[in-house]
């Protein structure tokens, strides 16, 4: 059972629009959208977007009200991420990871209260983003199994951390890393260690040169005998004890990722509508919007977007209301929404031809970005395999 903890006052405040974070996000998103193409072209990190998000109070959206944040739940946060994702999904992805960790932190029984209060306060007061660093060159995603190569060695004065993380989203701006590592004990334990960014022995290697989400700063982070305090150990267990998924983390991760790519699909749809209205081929003598084929394909796009919107809102709302949810159901939401989002952009491309693929228009960027939805954990094949095995009783 997922239970909201200490958010009743904050939820009421957000619902009453004090202040209206949706309106703030919409204002900022206009600027994000104007800058998105240049950040995509140069693969530059959008530092200015996060300064503006901080000034607008949006970095502390999911920080509990008791710690000075807005105390927003998953549904409200997903709405904000959809707005930002439509404008610049790279910014939205970094923001989503920050939101996820603060929601998990607020509901966790393993986070030391002193640390959770400290990180919450920092997020309210300024630019203090957090993300989990889990993926490694050899390991790949931990969701596929296996022990991390990153080692935490306990000494009398602190942990000493050595390892190599890849796809570390937001690395240029993160203040805190949640590093997935194993201990060097005779029987290794595995889990998260809280590491401040910029400690001696830490390096960011700018390796991110991707097809999509090019402005997300998902570079490599290398730890070379980095010293962290003993109380940096957050949740470290025997490997077998990690088999059951964290339902809170799984739920908000899948619904937030879904919201971002739904936003990308909506951006593609909006551009397509304007293209169809204003493109007048000489052979037709009328806008493409008058063609039944264009109207039918656009109708299919609208249907997919309507399904996505309902799935995101309902599932996130259930989470906020404490409805019992499963990781398997979360995975289905992510699979369905991201698949629909990809199909939306592919349908838009089918109507626009070369115009849709030219770099002068944003549709080709939306296509590159939306394809990244298939990469996020849980990946489509893993979700389908799990569902199939469950149906067969295996």
UniProtKB/TrEMBL annotation:
CDD domains named in the record: ACAD
Record domain Acyl-CoA dehydrogenase C-terminal: where: 257-377
TM helices/strands, residue ranges: none
Acyl-CoA oxidase/dehydrogenase middle domain location: 136-226
Keywords for this protein: Flavoprotein, Oxidoreductase
Superkingdom of origin: Bacteria
Alphabetized PANTHER family for the sequence: ISOBUTYRYL-COA DEHYDROGENASE (PTHR43831), ISOBUTYRYL-COA DEHYDROGENASE, MITOCHONDRIAL (PTHR43831:SF1)
Protein name: Acyl-CoA dehydrogenase
Upper taxonomic lineage: Bacteria, Pseudomonadati, Pseudomonadota, Alphaproteobacteria, Hyphomicrobiales
Name of the gene encoding the protein in the UniProt record: acd_2
């Amino acid at each position: 059972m997922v239970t909201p903890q200490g958010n009743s006052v904050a939820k009421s405040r957000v619902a009453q629009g004090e202040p209206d974070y949706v309106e703030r996000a919409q204002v900022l998103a206009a600027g994000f959208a104007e800058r998105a193409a240049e950040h995509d072209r140069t693969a530059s990190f959008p530092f200015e977007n996060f300064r503006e998000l901080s000034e607008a109070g949006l970095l502390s959206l999911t920080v509990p009200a008791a710690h000075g944040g807005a105390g927003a739940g998953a549904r409200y946060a997903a709405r904000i991420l959809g707005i930002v994702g439509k404008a610049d999904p790279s910014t939205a992805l970094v923001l989503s990871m920050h939101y996820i960790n603060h929601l998990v932190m607020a509901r966790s029984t393993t986070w030391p209260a002193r640390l959770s209060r400290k990180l919450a306060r920092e997020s309210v007061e300024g630019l203090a983003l957090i993300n989990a660093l889990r993926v490694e060159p050899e390991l790949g995603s931990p969701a596929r199994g296996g022990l991390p190569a990153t080692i935490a060695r306990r000494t009398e004065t602190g942990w000493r951390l050595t390892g190599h993380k890849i796809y570390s989203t937001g690395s240029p701006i993160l203040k805190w890393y949640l590093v997935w590592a194993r201990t060097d004990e005779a029987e290794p334990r595995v889990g998260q260690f809280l590491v401040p960014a910029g400690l001696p022995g830490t390096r960011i290697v700018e390796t991110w040169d991707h097809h999509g989400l090019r402005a997300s700063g998902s570079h490599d982070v290398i730890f070379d005998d980095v010293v962290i305090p003993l109380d940096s150990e957050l949740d470290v267990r025997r490997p077998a004890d990690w088999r059951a998924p964290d339902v809170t983390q799984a739920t908000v991760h899948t619904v937030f990722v879904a919201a971002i790519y739904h936003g990308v699909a909506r951006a593609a749809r909006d551009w397509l509508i304007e293209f169809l209205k204003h493109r007048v081929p000489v052979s037709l003598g009328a806008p493409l919007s008058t063609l039944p084929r264009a109207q039918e394909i656009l109708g299919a796009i609208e249907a997919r977007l309507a399904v996505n919107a309902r799935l995101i809102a309902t599932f996130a709302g259930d989470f906020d209301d404490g409805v019992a949810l499963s990781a398997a159901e979360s995975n289905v939401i992510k699979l369905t929404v991201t698949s629909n989002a990809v199909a939306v952009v592919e349908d838009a491309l089918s109507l626009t031809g070369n115009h849709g693929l030219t770099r002068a228009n944003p549709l080709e960027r939306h296509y590159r970005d939306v394809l990244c939805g298939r990469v996020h954990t849980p990946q489509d094949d893993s979700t389908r395999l799990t569902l199939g095995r469950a149906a067969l009783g295996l």
